[in-house]
């Protein structure tokens, strides 16, 4: 059974104050957000989420079913819902963050004061019934090369790819199998970020996130491609600073 520290490797149960939970993109681990933990973001502290199957959880099987992953994460995060919190997710992580917010609401648990969705079209936007996770190995590697999120040295290393491929396929399966179910829009503000040069995500799909909230909605385009959150980290964090600073959103 996974422990608290498995899910939150940079968090202790004694950590208090407002929290920004950060959920990584496909293939990435919590360490992507480690630089975010070095300082306060507005009035919040970053708490990266470690999903199964990566980094220190590499021995675990990656979860390829979104409802099952969200259920496990909602249980793991429960001890940290005693203070105001926001959710940030990039690409796959944005979808996980959105469904986590809805799962917490259905369970009558505290809900986020703000949802930040980055690098992914709105969940209700039809992206086609892809089966990318079932591609032959060579075609799957080419797909990863197009996304440009996996270092070339890893893509060229057969042993490393044999090790990472099951986790990567599971992450793609989360999206491939996802089916949006309509619910009442969230009551928290939603801020969406996109990369100006991201040819994988259309701006109209980013704008469609506005239908998922009854509160304020913002869309901001930043320089860079699909992984602008790494290329433009300081610019992104400066914007988050403003959104999460006093007198920011109150605990819902």
Automatic annotation (TrEMBL):
UniProt superkingdom: Bacteria
GO molecular function terms noted in the UniProt entry: hydrolase activity
Residue span(s) of domain Thioesterase: 18-243
Pfam families: Thioesterase
Keywords: Hydrolase
UniProt family annotation: Belongs to the thioesterase family.
Protein's name in the database: Alpha/beta fold hydrolase
Organism of this sequence: Lysobacter hankyongensis
Lineage: Bacteria, Pseudomonadati, Pseudomonadota, Gammaproteobacteria, Lysobacterales
């Amino acid at each position: 059974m996974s422990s608290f520290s498995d899910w939150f490797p940079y968090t202790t149960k004694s950590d208090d104050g407002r929290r920004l939970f950060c959920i990584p993109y496909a293939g990435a681990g919590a360490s992507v957000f480690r630089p975010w933990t070095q300082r306060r973001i507005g009035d919040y502290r970053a708490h990266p989420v470690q999903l199964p199957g990566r980094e220190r959880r590499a021995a675990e099987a990656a979860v390829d079913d979104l409802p099952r992953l969200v259920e496990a994460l909602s249980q793991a995060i429960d001890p940290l819902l005693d203070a105001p919190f926001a959710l940030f997710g990039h690409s796959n992580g944005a979808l996980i963050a959105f469904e986590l917010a809805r799962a917490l609401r259905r369970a009558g648990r505290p809900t986020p004061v703000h949802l930040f969705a980055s690098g992914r079209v709105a969940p209700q936007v039809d992206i086609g019934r892809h089966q990318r996770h079932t591609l032959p190995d060579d075609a799957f590697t080419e797909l990863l090369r197009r996304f440009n999120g996996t270092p070339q040295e890893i893509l060229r290393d057969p042993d490393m790819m044999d090790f990472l491929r099951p986790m990567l396929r599971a992450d793609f399966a989360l999206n491939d199998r996802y089916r949006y179910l309509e619910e009442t829009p969230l009551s928290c503000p939603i801020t969406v970020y996109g990369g100006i040069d991201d040819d994988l995500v259309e701006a109209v799909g980013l704008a469609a996130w506005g239908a998922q909230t009854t509160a304020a909605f913002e869309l901001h385009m930043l320089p860079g491609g699909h992984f602008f959150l790494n290329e433009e980290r300081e610019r992104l964090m400066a914007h988050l600073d403003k959104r999460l600073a006093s007198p920011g959103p109150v605990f819902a």
